Structures are given as structure tokens and as C-alpha cells.
């Protein structure tokens, strides 16, 4: 790889130019960031290093602090917030986005001399990409930026957009890409390694083995133990083994036998003792001793962040040989390994399996680092239940990815762009990377369809034709969920009657239930309405390929937040809107309303933290079950007051076609148990969630409470 001189980047900053650095992700790139940080510290200047939350792991921060020096760096992340400002501030992207207005319009922090946007290729990722674009659009023009990304096929397009939106020259600095000479091997039934490919095609012998030999369950001891023996015999450690699920990772670790090791020396070594001092939760745990005895551990989002940091440190120091992880967790990892083993080509999303994407497998390949001049690394593919060898071969493409903007309008997008002092929000949208990549399209037909629908439902209970269509979608999605839940109960599944009751209650609360057009509109009995709605949806799908969809969505989201006085008639943020912006919530309306009505106490009590945690937005896998033992009368009383405040708000929003979730009593109950000092293992066990899910809820609750205060 060509050396990138630090001074080349520094000189660009001094010249007032922005820079776009393309360089493969990995230790070399991190070392460059550390070198740049040292230059800024020596010059008495400040630097902010911005990393997407999905990639900002405790180990990355540990690695950076080790290079920069703990006295010079502070952290602003979900799991750690240092209240002191130092020369180098490591920010989580979402936290910076939530606080941009306070920082630059209200002087909450001194602006940096350089802002580094790490993983800029994430412009092409849902959610993260929207946050990145919003930060670039909202950041004051006078602050120089250094965008750092892996090589992309459309680097020049990204460079051109940065120059346009930042209104100053942007210098492209390209690092040479080292040739990938890693070996792609297939694990035979006899536990030998043979080449997977022959001239970029699946080798004939591999095809024959795939046809004749049966697939194996990857987590069983009959698979795991011979695999470990093979990896150790071939001196391919440290290694990462990618499994289909977190459950499989844990089962695989249990299948690992104990091996001879110096557990006592490791536990008492200065580095590991310092790790335990930083994270007392790791002390006196039999699981830690088991990992060292087996020289194998699991590494995934179901664990406590401190555990994940520990496993990466163990891998780096060669205290363990192997870690079992998942493809979806690869973006969090930094540790370089000699070999990776794919037992799956699948990724679990919302409890469903889907094929991995090229970008996801690229995150796996980046972890393969040379350990010596003659060592090129090895990718092993095993014939297991969840592997598609052809899919892996097809995605093993050395060509850079094409970065396609994933910007989408949401309530937070409207609030964020309304916070820009010197630009109209619509003008800001038109300056986005999304708008630069797509052409506008006429939306007149969309408006005509809404007018046609308005003629058919003039006495409707909802506020507009657009709201009527949204309510139809809510009704049909709820009906599908209800039918599935009822079917699962009949089959003896784990779905409860409470969930069915909640869905039935949701449907009954829709304004359609008392509307004269219910049969024609909600039940879709009127053919002309069906035709209008079908064409409307088809047209919106087509518009998603054009830049015009941004303005359409912006106007849709602006209606409810304008009625709630989050923004005024001039598209400017109000104090309520600023509170909503700070939360970062997709649906901030309920918590803002409760704050305005004074039913959320913001004090140091456990009850206060528990109430706020009920408004935290969690994915399905992180949402706990309701544990009756954790509910106290004070919490029930608080929720009675909250329900009284939110009932008119939710009814009003439903008439606008907006269904807002929560707050969730189960989340509050779990947080109350945590704040009252109950054993974390007991809490997560009763709530039916992983330790990682529990910690994310606690951290998110603390962050939301700080933002509301």
C-alpha cells in the first residue's frame, strides 16, 4: 500500500480545503488517524473523529486511546460519555447529529479545527447514510472536513458533491490498494483444505463434494472440534468463525474442549488486570475462565460491550485462538486475524434469515490481515446447513462498491434540516447526495390522485386524503399481524393473548372505525377507491427512483410536526421542535408531549430513569417481555398519568395518518429493576432478552434522559 503522508492531509486543512481520503478499512487507516491526531495535539488544535454507532466499538476506542493517549481524547458515545472536552473528541455519528444545533448555534462546545468523518462509504447504508448526509448538510461551512472511506467506483461523484455542498475545494487523496492474495479454500469431509475455485469458478472436486457429501450442522461438537483441530494444525490462528446466529455461536463455544493454557498468568497480567479494572462486571466470572481454558469465545451483539472488548483483546494478544461471531457483527470488529471460516452465507434480520450482501461480506474480508511476509491469509468455506458456496463465490469480488445514497425523509430529517440557519430545508434536500444522483420527476399525477380520493371521502374522519391512505396501510398491516398472532396461538406458539389484545385495540382506535367511509375506504369495498390507492402506491414506488420523492416525503412529515408546533410557518424550529430534535427518536411526539405536560419527572430517582426508558425505541429483538415482578405501584401510577396525557395526542396523530408506538411499560419495568440494583443476569433472564439488549436499553434510556434535561 502506498504510504499516505500525514502532512499531505494537514497541508490541505491549512489551505482551507476539504479532503476525501480513500483507503481500505483496517489498522493502517486507524494508524493514520492516530498520526493526524498527534499532529493536531502538537499544534494545539482540536479534532473531532466521527464514527457511525454501528462501527464504534469499545475496542476501537481502546485502540485509539492507546495510540493517542488517554489524556488527550474524550468520548461521546452511547455507552460512554466523558463530560470533559479534550483536543481529540471521538463522537458517535448519531449523537453528533442530535446535538449539532446546540453545539454550533448555542455554543455548547467549541468547534473543532478539523472534523473527520469515518466510514464515509456508509452513505450507501440505510439510516447511517441519512445521518451522514444530514451532518454534511448542517455542518457550518467554515469547519474543514476530512471524509475517510474505502475505495469506491464513484469516488469522483462523491468528491464533486462534497465540493458543491461544502462550497469550497475538496482534494482527493488516494492510497494505493494492496493486492488481495488471500487463499479461498474449501473444507472437505475429511477435514482437509482444497482450493475452492479454479479460474474463478467452483472447482470440479468441490462441486462433486457438494453433491455427494451431506451438509453438517455448524454448531455441533462433531463439526466444531475437528474444525478447531484443523485451524490449529495449519497454524491459522487467530481465527474468526462466522455462524448463522448468536445462539449457534454460544452452542459452538460449549462444543469446544478445554486445552492446556496458562490461565493464571493471563488473568494476572497487567493488560488483563487493567481491563478488569475498567470493567468490574468482568471480574470473578467463570465464563472468562472458561474462555481462556478453551482458548475460544463468542463475540456478538448479544453480549455486554465490555465482554466484546475483552474477546477482541484476547484475540489480539493471542490469549485465545478462535472467536465465533456473526456476519452482521463484522462491521463492529477491528481485530486482524489469519483466517476466517464461513459456516454461513446468511444474515439474521428481524428473526428472519436472508442472503448476505457484498458489502456485508466485504466487512468480513477486511478482518483478514497478513501476519507475516509469507502469510497471505485464508478464507475457509465449509459445507454446512446455511452455506451457499456459489453466493460466496459471486460476492468475492475485488472491485470497489458503487455508493448509492440511501437518504430518506423522516420526522428527524425535517427537524434537522429546519435547524439550518442559512438555508431553506427544501433547498437543503436539493443539495443532498441523493438529489445529485437522481433526476427529478413530475409529481402532478400524485396530487391529482389525492384530489380524486378527496372527492370520494369528503366527510371522512381523517384529516386528509394522504392520511386516509396511511390509515388504510396501518389497518391492513395490523390485520396481517393479528391473523399471524392468532394462528400462532392456535398452534401452541409463544405469542400471548396480550399481543392479540393490543393489536385488536390498535385497530379499534383507528378513526376509520367511526367513519361513514369505513366499508368503502378502510375495507376497500369501493372499486374506484381501490384503483386510486393502487395507482398512488405504484407511483410512489416509481418516484423512489427520482429525487422528487424527497420533497413529497418532506411535505408529508411536515404536516403533523407543524400542527404540533415543532416548526413554525417559516419552517424554523420552535423550543418543542428543538427538544424533539435532541431526542433523536423516530417518533419524538409522545415524550415531548409528556415533558410539556409535566408527567415525566427529571431527577436522580430510579422511577425517573424507568419512565424515560419506556420511550426508548428498540428493535424487536431488544424489546423485553413484561415482568410483573418488576412493576411497582409508583410506576403504574406514572403510566396512568402518561396514558391520560397521550390519549388525545395519539387520536390527533391517527387522524393525520401517524401511528406512534409506546411508551412501553415492559422497558420501564426492566429499567426500574436495574436501577434498584437487581442482578443483571436475573433481569435479562426474566425479561427474555440478551445481556447486550439489556445494556442497549439502559444506555439509550440514560442518553434520552440527558437529552431531555
CATH class of the largest domain: Alpha Beta
Poorly predicted runs: none
Beta fraction of the residues?
5-15%
Enter the CATH topology name of the largest domain. Rossmann fold
> What is the helix content?
40-55%
Strand ordering within the main sheet: 3-4-2-5-6-1-7
Strand and helix map with partners:
Elements: H1 6-14, E1 18-22, H2 27-42, E2 47-51, H3 58-68, E3 73-76, E4 88-92, H4 93-105, E5 114-117, H5 128-138, E6 145-149, H6 155-166, E7 170-174, E8 183-187, E9 193-195, E10 197-198, E11 201-202, H7 204-212, H8 221-233, E12 239-243, H9 246-254, H10 263-268, H11 270-278, H12 286-294, E13 296-298, H13 305-316, E14 322-326, E15 339-344, E16 346-349, E17 352-355, H14 358-365, E18 378-386, H15 389-395, H16 411-418, H17 425-430, H18 433-437, H19 444-456, H20 465-490, H21 497-509, H22 518-522, H23 527-543, H24 548-563, H25 575-583, H26 589-596, H27 606-613, H28 633-655, H29 665-675, H30 680-687, H31 691-708
Parallel strand pairs: 1-6, 1-7, 2-4, 2-5, 3-4, 5-6, 8-18, 12-14, 12-15, 13-14, 15-18
Antiparallel strand pairs: 8-9, 10-11, 16-17
Helix pairs in contact: 1-2, 4-5, 19-23, 20-21, 26-28, 27-29, 27-31, 29-30, 29-31
Describe the structure.
With 709 residues, the protein is an alpha/beta fold. It has three domains: 6-174, Rossmann fold; 183-395, Rossmann fold, CATH 3.40.50; 585-709, no CATH class. The chain contains 31 helices and 18 strands. Strands 3-4-2-5-6-1-7 form a seven-stranded parallel beta sheet, sandwiched between helices. The protein has a seven-stranded mixed beta sheet with strand order 9-8-18-15-12-14-13, with helices on both faces. A two-stranded antiparallel ribbon has the order 10-11. Strand 13 (296-298), helix 13 (305-316) and strand 14 form a beta-alpha-beta unit. Helix 26 (589-596) crosses helix 28, helix 27 runs antiparallel to helix 29 and helix 29 (665-675) runs antiparallel to helix 30 (680-687). The chain is globular and about 75 Å long. The protein starts with 5 loop residues before the first helix and ends with a helix. The mean pLDDT is 89.
Amino acid at each position: 500500500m502506498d504510504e499516505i503522508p500525514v502532512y499531505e492531509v494537514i497541508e490541505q486543512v491549512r489551505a482551507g480545503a476539504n479532503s476525501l481520503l480513500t483507503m481500505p478499512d483496517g489498522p493502517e487507516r486507524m494508524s493514520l488517524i492516530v498520526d493526524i491526531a498527534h499532529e493536531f495535539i502538537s499544534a494545539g488544535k482540536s479534532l473531532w473523529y466521527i464514527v457511525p454507532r454501528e462501527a464504534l466499538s469499545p475496542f476501537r476506542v481502546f485502540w485509539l486511546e492507546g495510540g493517542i493517549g488517554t489524556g488527550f481524547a474524550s468520548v461521546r458515545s452511547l455507552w460512554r460519555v466523558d463530560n470533559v472536552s479534550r483536543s481529540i473528541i471521538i463522537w458517535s455519528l448519531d449523537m453528533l447529529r442530535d446535538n449539532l444545533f446546540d453545539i454550533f448555534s448555542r455554543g455548547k462546545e467549541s468547534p473543532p479545527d478539523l472534523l473527520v468523518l469515518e466510514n464515509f462509504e456508509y452513505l450507501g447504508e440505510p439510516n447511517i447514510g441519512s445521518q451522514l448526509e444530514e451532518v454534511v448538510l448542517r455542518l457550518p461551512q467554515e469547519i474543514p472536513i476530512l471524509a475517510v472511506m474505502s475505495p469506491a467506483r464513484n469516488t469522483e461523484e462523491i468528491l464533486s458533491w462534497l465540493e458543491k455542498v461544502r462550497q469550497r475545494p475538496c482534494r482527493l487523496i488516494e492510497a494505493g490498494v494492496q493486492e488481495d492474495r488471500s487463499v479461498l479454500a474449501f473444507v472437505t469431509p475429511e477435514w482437509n483444505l482444497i482450493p475452492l475455485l479454479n479460474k474463478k469458478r467452483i472447482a470440479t472436486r468441490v462441486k462433486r463434494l457438494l453433491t455427494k457429501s451431506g451438509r453438517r450442522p455448524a454448531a455441533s461438537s462433531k463439526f466444531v472440534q475437528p474444525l478447531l483441530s484443523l485451524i490449529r494444525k495449519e497454524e491459522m490462528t487467530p481465527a474468526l468463525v462466522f455462524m448463522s446466529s448468536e445462539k449457534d455461536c454460544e452452542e459452538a463455544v460449549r462444543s469446544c474442549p478445554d486445552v492446556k493454557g496458562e490461565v493464571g498468568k493471563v488473568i494476572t497480567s497487567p493488560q488483563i488486570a487493567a481491563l478488569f479494572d475498567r470493567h468490574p462486571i468482568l471480574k470473578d466470572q467463570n465464563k472468562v475462565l472458561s474462555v481462556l481454558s478453551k482458548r475460544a469465545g463468542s463475540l456478538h451483539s448479544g453480549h455486554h460491550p465490555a465482554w466484546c472488548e475483552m474477546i477482541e483483546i484476547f484475540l489480539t494478544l493471542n490469549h485465545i485462538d478462535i472467536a465465533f461471531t456473526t456476519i452482521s457483527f463484522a462491521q463492529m470488529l477491528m481485530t486482524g486475524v489469519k483466517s476466517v471460516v464461513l459456516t454461513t452465507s446468511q444474515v439474521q434480520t428481524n428473526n428472519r434469515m436472508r442472503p448476505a450482501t457484498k458489502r456485508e461480506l466485504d466487512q468480513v474480508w477486511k478482518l483478514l490481515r497478513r501476519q507475516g511476509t509469507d502469510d497471505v491469509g485464508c478464507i475457509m468455506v465449509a459445507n454446512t446447513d446455511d452455506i451457499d458456496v456459489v453466493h460466496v463465490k459471486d460476492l468475492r469480488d475485488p472491485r470497489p462498491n458503487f455508493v448509492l445514497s440511501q437518504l430518506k425523509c423522516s420526522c428527524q430529517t425535517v427537524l434537522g434540516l429546519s435547524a439550518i440557519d442559512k438555508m431553506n430545508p427544501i433547498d437543503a434536500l436539493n443539495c443532498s447526495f441523493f438529489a445529485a444522483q437522481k433526476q427529478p420527476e413530475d409529481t402532478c399525477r400524485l396530487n391529482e390522485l389525492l384530489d380524486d380520493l378527496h372527492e370520494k371521502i369528503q366527510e371522512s374522519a381523517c384529516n386528509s386524503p394522504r392520511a386516509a391512505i396511511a390509515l388504510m396501510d396501518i389497518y391492513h398491516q395490523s390485520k396481517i399481524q393479528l391473523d399471524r398472532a392468532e394462528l400462532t396461538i392456535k398452534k401452541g406458539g409463544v405469542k400471548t393473548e396480550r399481543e392479540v389484545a393490543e393489536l385488536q385495540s390498535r385497530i379499534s382506535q383507528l378513526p376509520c372505525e367511526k367513519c361513514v367511509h369505513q366499508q368503502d375506504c378502510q375495507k376497500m369495498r369501493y372499486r374506484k377507491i381501490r384503483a386510486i390507492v393502487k395507482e398512488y402506491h405504484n407511483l410512489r414506488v416509481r418516484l423512489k427512483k427520482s429525487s422528487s420523492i424527497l420533497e413529497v416525503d418532506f411535505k408529508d412529515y411536515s404536516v403533523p410536526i407543524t400542527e404540533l408546533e415543532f416548526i413554525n410557518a417559516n419552517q424554523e424550529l420552535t423550543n418543542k421542535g428543538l427538544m424533539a430534535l435532541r431526542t433523536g427518536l423516530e417518533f419524538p411526539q409522545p415524550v415531548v408531549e409528556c415533558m410539556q405536560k409535566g408527567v415525566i419527572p427529571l431527577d436522580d430517582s430510579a422511577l425517573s430513569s424507568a419512565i424515560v426508558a419506556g420511550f426508548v425505541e428498540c428493535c424487536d429483538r431488544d424489546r423485553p417481555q413484561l415482568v410483573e415482578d418488576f412493576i411497582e405501584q409508583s410506576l403504574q401510577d406514572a403510566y396512568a398519568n402518561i396514558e391520560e396525557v397521550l390519549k388525545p395526542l395519539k387520536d390527533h396523530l391517527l387522524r393525520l395518518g401517524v401511528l406512534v408506538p409506546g411508551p412501553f411499560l415492559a422497558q420501564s419495568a426492566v429499567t426500574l429493576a436495574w436501577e434498584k440494583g437487581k442482578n443483571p443476569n436475573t433481569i435479562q433472564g426474566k425479561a427474555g432478552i440478551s445481556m447486550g439488549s439489556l445494556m442497549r436499553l439502559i444506555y439509550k434510556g440514560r442518553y434520552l434522559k440527558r437529552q431531555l434535561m
